[in-house]
Amino acid sequence: MAETLRIFRDWRDLPAEARGASVALGNFDGVHLGHAHMLRTAHSARPDAPSAVLTFEPHPREHFRPDDPSFRLTLSAERAAALAALGVEVLYELPFDTAFSLMTAEAFVADVLHTGLGARHLVTGPDFAFGHRRGGDISFLAARAETLGIGITTATVLSDDGGPISSTRIRRALQDGYPERATALLGRPWAIVGPVTHGDKRGRTIGFPTANVPIGRHLEPARGVYAVTIRLPDGSTHNGVANIGRRPTVNAGPESRLEVNIFDYEGNLYGAEIAVALHAFLRGERRFSGIDELRAQIAADAGEARRLLDQTNRTGA
């Protein structure tokens, strides 16, 4: 793991130590096993150069289609932490705004990659496209890189029995209620990271206090109940059970929310940022006849979540 990840949000006037890297290009949403393969390719191509990633914030799709449902697997800080864990030393997280979207493919290569970053080597996936109206493709990038004396490698696509490993596959697995499939593709459980906010405190009245975390710009997975683990700001990890959805028994609001009951934990987490990792989907969201039936079901859900998580801990699965 890289001891420190240096993050730069401008390609201009970079310090000397942030230039001359072997740079992997892409959105890196999720930082999954396919991305890890791309980073290994970049390191193998130039093991003497710093390991770097060039990505964008927000995701270009968020810029061009701001009214689309949220789809992000990892937000900026989560993505950076995942890249650091894979040994990335330098992250160029360039602001993707209207001005940047109008930059030509030629300017991106000459001004950003060559003059700005001083890149020694580039690694992309086979479908990488860039520049205004996606005017640059791999063949264009390869030709221009050669002219400028920059090495380039097109990384092979990492696949498993289900096909190419991609952020799209992971999103589909989560939306279909299969977090364990997402775990297999990511190399770690998928988590929603955010601050604990004040809810209606109804959980306290039925014996199951919950921490409320906004889903925000994260993808909304299948609505229902999950066995989860929760990482707290002190680095400790706890088991729990979470509900994602609109809570049809007690709430008629349109906005989905994440509510998590942390097992055997007492403490005030308001305002703290926590990570809630999904391990297993227990049941879909449904309406109950009243609070008593809801309380009984939550108790059953908590028992099932404890059983599954204890089993996972014992087997290491």
Q: What do these coordinates show?
A:
With 317 residues, the protein is of the alpha/beta class. The protein folds into two domains: 6-160, HUPs (Rossmann fold, 3-Layer(aba) Sandwich); 180-315, Elongation Factor Tu (Ef-tu), domain 3 (Beta Barrel), CATH 2.40.30. The protein is built from ten helices and 14 strands. The strands form three sheets. Strands 1-4-3-2-5-6 form a six-stranded parallel β-sheet, sandwiched between helices. It has a six-stranded antiparallel β-sheet with strand order 9-14-11-12-13-10. The two termini are 23 Å apart. The model has no long low-confidence stretch (mean pLDDT 93).
Task: Give the averaged pLDDT, no decimals.
Answer: 93
Query: What is the N-to-C succession of helices and strands?
Result: EEHEHHEHHEHEEEHHEHEEEEEH
Spans of at least 5 consecutive residues with low confidence: none
Radius of gyration: 22 Å
Q: Enumerate how many helices there are, as a single number.
A: 10
CATH topology of the largest domain: Rossmann fold
Summarize the structure in short.
The chain has 317 residues and is of the alpha/beta class.
Topology:
Layout: E1 6-8, E2 22-25, H1 33-45, E3 51-57, H2 60-64, H3 76-85, E4 90-95, H4 98-101, H5 105-116, E5 121-124, H6 138-148, E6 151-154, E7 159-160, E8 163-164, H7 167-175, H8 179-186, E9 191-195, H9 202-205, E10 211-213, E11 224-231, E12 237-245, E13 257-262, E14 273-284, H10 291-315
Parallel strand pairs: 1-4, 2-3, 2-5, 3-4, 5-6
Antiparallel strand pairs: 7-8, 9-14, 10-13, 11-12, 11-14, 12-13
Helix pairs in contact: 5-6, 7-8
